[in-house]
Specification:
- This protein has one domain: Rossmann fold.
- It has ten helices and eight strands.
- The chain has helices at residues 4-20, 22-26, 35-57, 73-79, 92-101, 142-155, 173-181, 184-193, 203-206, 213-222; strands spanning 63-67, 84-89, 110-114, 127-132, 156-167, 226-232, 241-247, 256-257.
- Strands 3-2-1-4-5-7-6-8 form an eight-stranded mixed beta sheet, with helices on both faces.
- α1 (4-20) packs across α5 and α3 crosses α4 (73-79).
- The longest helix has 23 residues, at 35-57.
- The radius of gyration is 18 Å and the shape is globular.
Length: 258
Amino acid sequence: MVELRDQQEMREGWNARAERDPFFYIETTHWNGDIDDFFERGEQTTRLLIDQFQSQYGSARDIALDLGCGLGRFSRALAKRYASVIAVDISDLMIANAKQLHPWPMGSNIEFRTSDGVNLQLPNDAIDFVWSYEVLQHAPSHEIIRANITEIGRVLRPGGWAMIHFKTGYQHPIMRSLIRCLPKPLVTLGLRFTGNDPMMVEQSFLGALPVNEGEIEDMFGAAKLKLLRIVEDPTHSAGTRSFAIVSKDAQPASHVTA
């Protein structure tokens, strides 16, 4: 069961990050102060990942959903490939900033919306393609991840497909374990003393424990989606992130792990 407290902490946490520096907290590794470069990285990742699989698994290109859109770096790339894009995020401030960054006519086929982090205010069978990148890794519980997968299954059209990003491991597992075991005030004090950012150890940023292939398969099975492939994410360290490629009543049930 999804806890309302978790949803509130997600919104408050990401609003606070959006107020301080929305670009940095979305792109913590590569943010260099150049907004054009930030959006170009979204385009490059779209070419690397979405375009690679579109010809194999894609179908209609009417409506795409950018789940956890942030400032709309992928919404902008998807808008070049789909007739319209619905971009949702739990942070009111992220959405407000995204709208400012996509004035007419640039954002004329993008609709930015605030969500509650669980429910999508969309009709059943409405979306051709769902994309989510570096979003569910921040979800504070597996229940929230499952709820999002259920919603993806509901809104995806028969014949539609999705690429969903998961945290499957840690780059520094010992440090992550220490952060989770120590009392939060002690962790925050230690991070401040060493010059690190306490906002990056909040549960709404750290997220729940990684998921494994069996858990991913079970989540999509419960949502009545077909898991086609699990592919390792080339934009992160090996073993830490993967994409699930899924479809709704369109592809064979078997899947291949790459």
